[in-house]
């Protein structure tokens, strides 16, 4: 018995020694490294860490990242104790610098009076962070829908604040246009705003570089900024966005995911002469004006046409991208923008083309050929398929090598790299064989196939090659 107690005592002593040793190692790190490690802790774990020693408490109160997150629903007595503890934590911090302050708080539980009291307490935390020259402020609040949430004016007056994220699930009050700010990054998520908020951004955010709207309920978005460099919109149909007008001389990146229940009456206007990257996912609209995108380097277009879409209007989208170097399209977009016999758009600058193909039918192949005929300098081709590897037996192929040769695709002499992911099998095989035989400057071809298509790979290896290209065959992995 004594031996067991001695053993346990020794084990406990060793564990304590190891803990102390770990703490001393932590203290030996550069202060900025220690603070970076502590920045990942929610405040409740940070407080526990501060209770280990006086030195730990110093680190706890000086760490520049404060995370009031990770609190689940608590009984009222414990809930109010928690509010008091968080108030005390900020009081003990004093004026120590806060670089990033995050709050994740549920304000929809309890009586209305207590909810407004809690909201007032949360805003006192924001005031405290502002006094500590906060740089990044992230507020994720769950508030009753009937409530309009208004940010304190000190947030916009804060000279150190460069980043603001607000998610509140309700209406967000518009700041005064006269209320200027140094904000460089703004993200609004799951809020409801009016057009005045966009006006405030355009007129009062003179330093803004990046703007993100995610599930923001607003009918019309008009942003005209001389400093904005990046704009992002994620708008499901329930958000009700009808019009989007975005303009700026410094805009280099636009990423739009915009879906409309009724495309009629919708419009997109882009005025960004220095735009370099453009991604658009969603519906073709009633009206879209892209302007002259002469500096565009990369475009990703994944659009679904409505039943009554105007072809000529949609085709104008493609003409706006005529100077692009990298073009990525979905199958629906290709089929919508090209029809049999239509004069192809000319893309002399395109060097990389990628398409997501879900079915190799007549319309897809015809549209693909029409598209590629306008790309004389294409040197990289990537044809993907997102379908399961369990494919049906392919029908007899009408698009054989004779068909591909008859299309007189001028880019074939410039082609250097090709990736083809097999779906149907026979059509892709004939296209691959055509490329291997006619692309004299081809350097590499990657074929991605399913286990059922291994016989097609054997046929590919028998192709007559007129280049020294490397052929890489990869079996598709099951998901």
In summary, what is this structure?
The protein has helices spanning 2-28, 31-38, 43-50, 54-62, 76-93, 112-131, 153-157, 195-204, 311-320, 331-337, 362-372, 401-406, 426-438, 454-460; strands spanning 65-68, 100-107, 136-143, 148-149, 163-167, 171-172, 185-189, 210-214, 220-224, 230-235, 243-247, 253-258, 267-271, 277-283, 287-289, 298-304, 326-330, 352-356, 380-384, 417-421, 444-449, 470-475. The protein is of the alpha/beta class and 479 residues long.
Q: Would you kindly provide a written description of the structure presented here, covering whatever features stand out?
A:
- Helices cover 33% and strands 24% of the residues.
- The protein is an alpha/beta fold.
- Among the domains are: 46 residues, Monooxygenase (Up-down Bundle), CATH 1.20.1280; 155 residues, Leucine-rich repeat, LRR (right-handed beta-alpha superhelix) (Alpha-Beta Horseshoe), CATH 3.80.10.
- The strands form three sheets. A 16-stranded parallel sheet has the order 1-2-3-5-7-8-10-12-14-16-17-18-19-20-21-22. Strands 9-11-13-15 form a four-stranded parallel sheet. Strands 4-6 form a two-stranded parallel sheet.
- Strand 2, helix 6 and strand 3 form a beta-alpha-beta unit.
- The chain is elongated and about 80 Å long.
- The N terminus is likely disordered.
**Under CATH, the topology of one domain is which?**
Leucine-rich repeat, LRR (right-handed beta-alpha superhelix)
Radius of gyration: 30 Å
Main sheet overview: 16 strands, parallel
How many DSSP E strands? 22
- The CATH class of one domain is identified as Alpha Beta
Number of helices: 14
The structure class reads alpha/beta
Low-confidence segments, ≥5 residues, pLDDT <50?
1-18, 388-395
Strand order of the largest sheet: 1-2-3-5-7-8-10-12-14-16-17-18-19-20-21-22
Q: Terminal Cα separation, in Å?
A: 56 Å
Into which percent range does the helicity of residues fall? 25-40%
The appropriate CATH architecture of one domain is: Alpha-Beta Horseshoe
Strand content: 15-25%
The geometry reads as elongated
Mean pLDDT: 82
